[in-house]
Design goal:
Length: 246
C-alpha cells in the first residue's frame, strides 16, 4: 500500500495531466510522504479554469485536500467553493478565514500553509503570483499562458530557475504537450517517420472571443480596473490577446 501511494504521488503530475486533452492538469509531485500525509491545495483564480484545476487536483489522490481559495471578487469564489463542497465533501476544508479576496488575496493564500498553489487567474498576473509562490517554497501549477509580455516571460524564466534550485515542482497547463496521443505522434516525427520536416501548416479552430460589453452596460460607480478585470479577455495586458491566451 505504501509503495502504491508513493507511486501515485510521484505520478500525480503525469497522470492528471493526461486525463483530458482539453484541460490542464492539477500539478504536484510529492515524494516520500507517509500514507496519512495530507497534501494541502490552494487555488488562486476561481473561474471556470480554476474550478477545473481544483477538480483535477482533488481527484488525483485520496489525501489531497483543498484548504484555501483566493479571487479578486467574492462571487466566483463562493460559487466555486459551493460546487466543490457539494462534489467532494470533507476533501474541501476551506474555512471562511481561508477565503481571500482582493488583489492581494494570492499572497494571503500562499501564506496560509498550503503545499501546492494552483494559479488560474488572468495571465497578466501570472509572473507576479508565480514569483511569490516559488519564493515561498510552494509547488505550483500555472495555467497557460505563463505571461503576456517579454518582461513577464523573463520573470517566469527566473522563477523556473529558482524552482529547480529549490527542488520544487513547477508545471504549466500546456494540455496538448501532456496528451499521450500527441506525445506519441511527436515522437514518431522526431524519430524520422516522415523524413526531414521542412514546413508545418496548422489550423487552430476555436470559438470567438467573448465580445466586450457595451460601455453603457457598465454599472454606475464601477472603476476602470474592476471593469477591465471583469472583462479581462478583451484587454491585452491581462490576456495577452486571443491567440496568446489560447
Amino acid at each position: 500500500m505504501k509503495n502504491e501511494l508513493y507511486l501515485t504521488r510521484r505520478q500525480f503530475l503525469k497522470t492528471s495531466s493526461a486525463v483530458a486533452a482539453t484541460a490542464a492538469a492539477a500539478p504536484v509531485i510529492l515524494t516520500g510522504a507517509p500514507n496519512n500525509a495530507r497534501l494541502k491545495i490552494g487555488l488562486v483564480g476561481c473561474g471556470g479554469r480554476g474550478s477545473g484545476a481544483a477538480n483535477q487536483a482533488l481527484n488525483a489522490d485520496p489525501n489531497v485536500v483543498l484548504t484555501a481559495l483566493a479571487d479578486v471578487f467574492p462571487e466566483p469564489m463562493q460559487h466555486c467553493l459551493g460546487a466543490l463542497q457539494k462534489k467532494y465533501g470533507d476533501k474541501v476544508q476551506v474555512p471562511e478565514s481561508n477565503c481571500f479576496t482582493g488583489l492581494d488575496g494570492y499572497q494571503k493564500l500562499i501564506d496560509s500553509g498550503v503545499d501546492v498553489v494552483l494559479l488560474a487567474t488572468p495571465p497578466g498576473f501570472r509572473p507576479q503570483h508565480l514569483k511569490a509562490a516559488i519564493e515561498a517554497g510552494k509547488h505550483v501549477f500555472c495555467e497557460k499562458p505563463m505571461a503576456t509580455d517579454a518582461v513577464g516571460v523573463r520573470s517566469v524564466m527566473a522563477s523556473a530557475e529558482l524552482a529547480r534550485e529549490k527542488g520544487l515542482s513547477l508545471v504549466a497547463g500546456f494540455c496538448w504537450r501532456y496528451n499521450p496521443k500527441c506525445r506519441a505522434f511527436y515522437k514518431r516525427i522526431h524519430d524520422g517517420a516522415i523524413g526531414e520536416v521542412r514546413a508545418v501548416y496548422a489550423t487552430y479552430l476555436t470559438g470567438p472571443v467573448k465580445p466586450m460589453p457595451p460601455a453603457n452596460t457598465r454599472p454606475a460607480g464601477m472603476g476602470d480596473v474592476e471593469w477591465q478585470l471583469r472583462n479581462w479577455y478583451n484587454f491585452v495586458w491581462l490576456s495577452g490577446d486571443g491567440l496568446v491566451e489560447q
